[in-house]
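Quick one, tokens below. Sequence please?
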């Protein structure tokens, strides 16, 4: 049987090693991402993956496979290909591009951030904006990706302090987990500013947000959440009023944010 440690880490480890080899030859993260069929952000994550030392002969075989992968990636016209490895007399086929569900989520929220970057600055509260996305089986914040440190408005665009990661936001993670107790399809959430202008825009969009009750630091959720795609925290002492837009995909949430943002642009 194939070693559990190998099957669990092989894809990430192999691509990380190949990225480091090519980086030493001057490849940029953008070029690495294009060759691997992933975003520049994800290529950067592979590049900075800490190497794992496996027991021999797996270690030598894996490094040799990474060198083979690096050579394949140098081909100018290769977009999809298969690399076959023999591990403990078993043949393992690695097909690229390949993304597991967690990697896909990181790519999706990074893409959503870029898509909404200039609009987020118009809708940013003082505490700044974040985006979070959950895996289908998330039970705690380790199953929810977000941007550590939130998104900071710089020169009219929302800039991340670092790449998205799982466990990157406790607040949004907890709120999304509470929503999912009533609506298991909800997987994406973003926090925005809340004021009379945004409230009027939501009314025009025929979106009626659920106003949450605050008990200290806790926002109390109830079954009415299934009737809406927006939540409001009216704030309190030490807490800024906030709007939360959520949905079952980055597309559904992004469309609402875009409509809000474009309406604010017209009003400016």
């Amino acid at each position: 049987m194939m070693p559990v440690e190998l099957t669990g880490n092989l894809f990430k480890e192999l691509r990380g090693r190949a990225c480091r080899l090519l980086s030493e030859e001057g490849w940029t993260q953008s070029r690495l991402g294009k060759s691997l069929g992933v975003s520049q952000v994800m290529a950067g994550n592979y590049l900075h993956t800490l190497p794992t030392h496996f027991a021999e002969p797996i270690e030598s075989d894996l490094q040799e496979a990474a060198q083979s992968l690096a050579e394949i990636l140098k081909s100018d016209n290769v977009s999809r290909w298969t690399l076959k490895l023999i591990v403990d007399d078993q043949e393992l086929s690695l097909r690229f591009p390949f993304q597991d569900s967690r990697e896909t989520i990181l790519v999706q929220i990074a893409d959503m951030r870029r898509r909404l970057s200039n609009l987020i600055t118009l809708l940013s509260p003082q505490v700044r904006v974040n985006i979070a996305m959950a895996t289908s089986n998330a039970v705690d914040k380790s199953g929810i990706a977000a941007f550590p440190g939130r998104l900071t408005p710089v020169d009219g665009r929302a800039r991340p302090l670092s790449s998205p990661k799982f466990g990157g936001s406790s607040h949004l993670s907890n709120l999304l987990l509470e929503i999912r107790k009533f609506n298991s399809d909800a997987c994406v959430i973003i926090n925005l500013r809340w004021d009379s202008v945004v409230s009027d825009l939501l009314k025009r969009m025929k979106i009626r947000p659920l106003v949450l009750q605050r008990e200290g630091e806790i926002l109390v959720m109830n079954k009415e959440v299934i009737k809406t795609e927006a939540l409001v925290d009216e704030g309190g002492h030490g807490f800024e009023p906030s709007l939360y837009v959520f949905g079952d995909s980055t597309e559904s949430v992004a469309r609402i944010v875009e409509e809000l943002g474009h309406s604010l642009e017209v009003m400016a």
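The domain at 101-267 is CATH 3.40.225.10 (L-fuculose-1-phosphate Aldolase). The first strand starts at residue 81 and ends at 87.
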